[in-house]
């Protein structure tokens, strides 16, 4: 790139005129918006908003996921030079308007206010007919997000990648816990249980509340194609929300998370499943539980950034003309 051309590409997160298009900037410099998308609160003409939720006050073990959105954004600066691999040339960043909506603002010292703030945050985006991909944050954040989605779409199908079912019984709906978010989502009627599937599970659960699951061993033994076929049959054409806990990956691939469990998915399995889910009616998604303090290599954040990119591609693929 010539010097004069390079000067025109400085900090596209702020200077980009058209939100569409790939980005050619130094990965090691400039503002770390997600995929070098434009930072903006103006959703006019926007298809998809990426937003961060740096919340980790609902964890059962190690904190640190409050730093997840920032780390995922930084890791994502390696990706916006080319269309995502394996999508047959499909380029969501050029064909669709994807922006970085910034992070949710909340009072870290007043936790009871957090769920409502997050629901309203997502509702405000959905009200403008814009989808969301959310960067967490611990997995509790999915519950307030699902409240917003269920208000717009009714109970949604959920594809849930995780080492844990997050179905621990807890009928105190005011209690905040990342291990009970799915239980509460089911009990509150936010989830279409018959259309939902959990993938990668490898911890005990006494009651799956009617949700089908495919454990990690089954993924390894029966393969990616089996899982994708089952997932597509399960969700059908229903509005689908995909939540990806990074601990679905084995700690060898994603050590930077609060509750790592051995025997998990490999990164190639996750990549292949997400790619092959193309065609589902994805209305939104999130990637959660990236905890940078527990991974000095940055590999976990890189994995999180790739998952988020696949969510962007899945969302946009479903809206091709």
Compose a concise summary of this entry:
The chain is an alpha/beta fold.
The biggest sheet amounts to: 8 strands, parallel
Q: Please identify which CATH superfamily we are dealing with.
A: Ureohydrolase domain
* Helicity range: 25-40%
Distance between the termini: 33 Å
Unreliable segments of 5+ consecutive residues: none
Number of helices: 11
Q: What's the CATH C level?
A: Alpha Beta
> What is the C-alpha radius of gyration, as a whole number of Å?
18 Å
Would you count the extended β strands for me? 8
What is the 3D form?
A: globular
User: What is the CATH topology classification name?
Assistant: Arginase, Chain A
Instruction: Output the helix-strand order.
Output: HHEHHEHEHEHEEHHEHEH
Provide structural commentary.
By secondary structure, the chain is of the alpha/beta class. It has a single domain (55-88, 117-317), classed as Arginase, Chain A (3-Layer(aba) Sandwich). The chain is 32% helix and 14% strand. It has 11 helices and 8 strands. The protein has an 8-stranded parallel beta sheet with strand order 2-1-3-8-7-4-5-6, with helices on both faces. Helix 10 packs parallel to helix 11 (299-317). The radius of gyration is 18 Å and the shape is globular. The model has no long low-confidence stretch (mean pLDDT 95).
